[in-house]
Design goal:
The complex is a heterodimer of chains A (546) and B (199). Chain A is mostly helical. The longest helix of chain A is centred in the middle third of the chain and has 41 residues, at 192-232. Chain A is 61% helix and 1% strand. Chain A has a two-stranded antiparallel ribbon with strand order 1-2. Chain A has one domain (47-518): Formate dehydrogenase/DMSO reductase domain (Formate dehydrogenase/DMSO reductase fold, Up-down Bundle). The radius of gyration of chain A is 26 Å and the shape is globular. By secondary structure, chain B is α+β, with helices and mostly antiparallel strands. Chain B has two domains: 17-63 and 140-187, Alpha-Beta Plaits; 66-131, no CATH class. Chain B has helices at residues 26-38, 55-59, 66-92, 109-131, 145-148, 168-177, and strands at 16-23, 44-47, 155-160, 182-187. Chain B has a four-stranded antiparallel beta sheet with strand order 2-3-1-4. In chain B, helix 3 (66-92) runs antiparallel to helix 4 (109-131). The longest helix of chain B is centred in the middle third of the chain and has 27 residues, at 66-92. Chain B starts with 15 loop residues before the first strand and ends in a 12-residue tail after the last strand. The relative contact order of chain B is 0.26. The chains are: A mainly alpha (546), B alpha+beta (199). The interface between A and B is large, with 80 and 78 residues.
């Protein structure tokens, strides 16, 4: 819109074709962007700039209608090229066999399961934000839950691929599910690997339902806007090639289909809110169960380094930790790239997430320490050796073994990378200046994401590469296919996220409007605080003390 | 008593579906809803961009039955999931795992839980849709340009002509007294599209 002269810009705005430009606001040293209120008695605003409901609609729908800007398609092209590596590598794997990975007789789970646990862990933040923070009445979640839920779905898609392709004969992967078959074979329900199939597929399904249900009213908003533009002859976007329909006709149809005919009825809202609350209620134990069950894959084995009861809570805390880091890594660039988003995702949101990273980082650090303590306290020599001589001791601290040879942990660099990223780096969030500095938050989030990948690598590979029989000890070296499959999964994740940014409502508009001050039936405009107007008087006979 | 529903027509000769009124703020809408409730109307609704806090009481709505439905279905799902695992492990395909009894229930807990969750989630979403009469392709209200503002920042109350107490002038007066900023008639749309020959 910068090419228009001011009069044209005003005319466009009045005609509903453009929105008011964002007035730059000064950074207040006391409250930052206005959301960092220190006084606990004062509620920080969740949407900055005294915005109207209409501003929320215009801003959020604008992202999906006008497109994100010139950066979008080149970025999308790049990420989709990277994403294409994944099907390519899977095809190569399928027609050749799992030998194309760096696996060997000893290390028979490596990058495949590392990537699986890494992605499924990232997928936990979305449901945490939408379900647990919903039950805890954390209203600030409303402006980040949609993006986090989208991220969850995409991460689960990436995660579910890896166990599917690591089975060797990919065309037999359907036998993971209890499907009647000619051989009358049923799965073994006493196996944690089967529990995992159910946990991950249930989690993916329920997250998708939750995500879709949250979007239904927002789809209806997008539908109504397109329909209104068609009615008034002010369509945006021309006729699409091949389809022969205008962009708004396609929008009205596609968003209309997805909105299921939602018409914002209060009778519907009542059931909707109940259903949403119940989904949140059931998703909370679900999200805790999924990573617990993932950890059973390891914990129920007898392998030193895996066989430990701390795994379920440790994995869940780690998943939330890594998931929040990924949410931050996606939202911080979004905030810069999409106009107006800084008023929806305020510094307070980022600071809150930084605090969650600090807390969950401590939980993870505690779990690392506890594993050590138990390895020592149990008096189990295998357990102790796994930690000291598989994971921790670097070559320069090598100790002499009984056979006179120097013993050190070959994967010490992976272990210490994990400790640095997951335990040391979040400590900067003790300082307010760091919690409120976007570059610092982004850097820590990036480090945590790397650290969480290393955590899974450390658990899986270092425990496996030296098990009970020294004659079978082997190092693991990833092959190019290993690496490119993982890179491809990152590309898939980003591509799906970019498509989400382009076509779907990135914010839960109805939920954001609901937490704005003027949404309350008790709200009085600040100007008329003196005399209570008719709208301020509350005379509900059967409603008291609200 | 065979109550005959009167059919009202607009000036253009179309059947009347409802009278709708726009309100400026959630507070106005809330109080107007109380007035409509107290006037004894049954077939009416409040339309708002988000669920207005406490509107169900202002409208006099009953507690939804959805939670009961979801609870029953969740428990049903868990029971079915358990029964299926038990059948598979003891009858369908016996596998001796670590010498444990075939029907050792402890190992069935995680999948039982997951299937219960799955049933709960599907019932919550689809039960909500069925109870709300959704999905549907169109609705008389969605043909009104003014109504489309509800999905942005407008608040609308619509009293349907099918209500036993419906009388256009009274409804209009009630909504006007309640503080409506605009009142409009909503034409009905036929349930089934008319045959092409009729045009």
């Amino acid at each position: 819109m910068s090419s228009l002269n001011p009069d044209q810009a005003t005319a466009a705005r009045l005609a509903g074709l453009a929105q008011a430009p964002d007035a730059p606001r000064a950074w207040d040293p006391a409250t930052g962007d206005g959301s960092l209120v220190e006084d606990p008695a004062v509620r920080a605003p969740l949407v900055l700039g005294n915005r109207s409901f209409n501003w929320v609609t215009e801003t959020v729908c604008g992202y999906a209608e006008k497109g994100p800007g010139k950066w979008f398609w080149p970025t999308f092209f790049l990420t989709s090229q990277i994403a294409a590596l994944m099907p390519l590598m899977i095809l190569y794997l399928a027609i050749t066999g799992v030998g194309v990975w760096g696996l060997n007789n000893q290390v028979d789970w490596a990058w495949d399961i590392t990537n699986f646990v890494f992605w499924i862990g990232i997928g936990h933040a979305g449901t945490l934000i939408s379900a647990i923070l919903c039950l805890l009445k954390q209203k600030w979640r409303t402006s980040i839950n949609r993006a986090a839920e989208a991220m969850t779905i995409f991460a689960v898609i990436c995660a579910a691929t890896f166990p599917g392709i690591h089975v060797g004969r990919i065309w037999m992967a359907w036998m993971l599910f209890p499907i009647p078959n000619a051989n009358a074979i049923w799965p073994n329900f006493k196996s944690p690997l089967l529990w995992d199939v159910f946990a991950v597929s249930t989690y993916g399904t329920v997250s998708a339902l939750f995500w879709f249900m949250g979007m239904v009213p927002d789809f209806a908003t997008l539908r109504d806007r397109a329909a209104k533009r068609i009615m008034t002859g002010r369509q945006i976007g021309g006729t699409l090639p091949l389809i022969g329909k205008t962009a708004d006709e396609v929008r009205a149809f596609a968003y209309g289909l997805a909105s299921l005919g939602w018409r914002f009825s209060s009778r519907h809202w009542l059931n909707y809110e109940k259903a949403y609350l119940m989904l949140a209620g059931i998703s909370t134990p679900l999200v805790l169960s999924v990573h617990s069950i993932v950890s059973f894959d390891f914990a129920t084995s007898i392998l030193p380094g895996w066989h430990t009861t701390i795994f379920p809570p440790y994995f869940v805390a780690g998943a939330i930790f890594g998931g929040f880091a990924m949410v931050l890594m996606l939202l911080i660039p979004s905030r810069e790239l999409f106009p107006g988003m800084k008023d929806l995702i305020t510094m307070r949101h980022l600071e809150n997430m930084a605090k969650i990273i600090l807390v969950t980082g401590y939980m993870v650090g505690f779990a690392y320490a506890m594993e050590f303590f138990v390895a020592w306290y149990s008096g189990n020599a295998y357990e102790r050796d796994v930690f000291l001589f598989n994971r921790v001791l670097p070559p320069f601290l090598a100790v002499e073994g009984l056979d006179g040879q120097l013993k050190y942990a070959p994967y010490w660099w992976a272990y210490w990378a994990m400790i640095f990223c997951n335990v040391v780096s979040p400590q900067v969030f003790w300082f307010k200046a760091c919690r409120q500095s976007i570059p610092v938050i982004f850097t820590v989030a990036f480090l945590v994401t790397i650290g969480m990948w290393f955590e899974r690598f450390v658990i899986i590979v270092t425990s496996l590469h030296r098990a009970f029989l020294p004659g079978e000890w082997h190092m693991f070296y990833p092959s190019l296919v290993d690496i490119l499959t993982f890179v491809g999964s990152c590309g898939t994740f980003l591509t799906l996220y970019l498509l989400f940014c382009r076509f779907l409502p990135q914010f839960a508009m109805s939920e954001i409007k609901n937490v704005m001050p003027q949404a309350s039936p008790h709200y009085r405009p600040p100007a008329s605080t003196g005399g209570a107007g008719p709208s301020g008087v509350h005379h509900a006979p059967n409603k008291e003390g609200v | 008593m065979a109550a005959t529903t009167k059919i009202y027509r607009t000036e253009e000769g179309k059947d009347l579906y409802a009278v709708m009124a726009e309100f400026a703020t959630p507070a106005d809408t809330y109080h107007a809803a109380e007035m409509v409730r107290d006037a004894g109307y049954q077939k009416w609704d409040v339309y708002s961009p988000f669920p207005i806090h406490g509107i169900e009481e202002a409208m006099g709505l009953k507690r939804p039955i959805l939670p009961l439905l979801v609870g029953v279905m969740g428990i049903t799902g868990a029971c079915l999931g358990f029964a299926f695992q038990y059948w598979v492990s003891t009858v369908g395909y016996k596998t001796n795992v670590q010498g444990k009894p075939y029907g050792a229930w402890e190992a069935f807990v995680p999948v039982t839980f997951e299937i219960g969750v799955l049933f709960t989630a599907f019932t919550a979403l689809f039960g909500m849709l069925v109870i709300n009469g959704l999905p549907r392709w169109n609705h008389p209200l969605l043909c009104k340009e003014r109504f489309l503002g509800v999905s942005d920042d407008k608040f609308i109350i619509a009293i349907e002509s099918a209500d036993a107490k419906f009388e256009p002038e009274q409804v209009r007066k009630l909504l006007k007294d309640a503080g409506a900023t605009a009142i409009e008639l909503v034409e009905d749309i036929p349930d089934a599209p008319a045959a092409p020959a009729a045009h």
